[in-house]
Amino acid sequence: MNVYDSANELARALKESREFQNLKETKETLAKDPDALKMAQEFMALNVEVGMAKYQGQEPEKEKTEKADKLLSILQLNSDAVAYLQAMMRFEMLMNDINKALSDVVKQVLGDK
Question: What is the extent of the structural domain holding 68?
Fold first, then answer.
């Protein structure tokens, strides 16, 4: 089995997955409201920053946390934004599961398992 062929097959399977298709569709719908799309993307970026700070054992900046909370409150009023954020979360869960499977293989080589 060629690893590169398997990687390309995985990429094709991801593109055909329900999670990817739903994410693509909800993003296209939300893109009809550029302001809402921009807010959703800003919220996700802030969420990543806050999450990284917590992961590193740091207290996230209060302003960023408050801004993320405010954006989420606004976005929750828009059903297309909610659908997009939910689709993004499901796709991220799928990607995390795939990354874990790959990481487990690497851990076997490094002796961490």
Answer: 3-110
Could you tell me the pLDDT band of residue 112, with boundaries at 50, 70 and 90? low
- Round to whole Å and give the CA distance between 96 and 113: 19
Longest dimension (CA), the chain: 51
Read off the tokens for 107: 């851990």
Tell me phi and psi for residue 60, to 5 degrees: -65, 150
Distance CA 26, CA 10 (A): 22
Look up the pTM and report it. 0.85
Q: How far apart are CA 101 and CA 106, in angstroms?
A: 9
Residue type at position 55: Y
Whichever domain contains 71, its CATH number is 1.20.1500.10
Domain count, the chain: 1
pLDDT tens, residue by residue, 14-60: 999 999 999 999 999 999 999 999 999 999 999 999 999 998 999 98
Dist. CA 1–CA 42, nearest whole Å? 42
End-to-end CA distance of the chain: 24
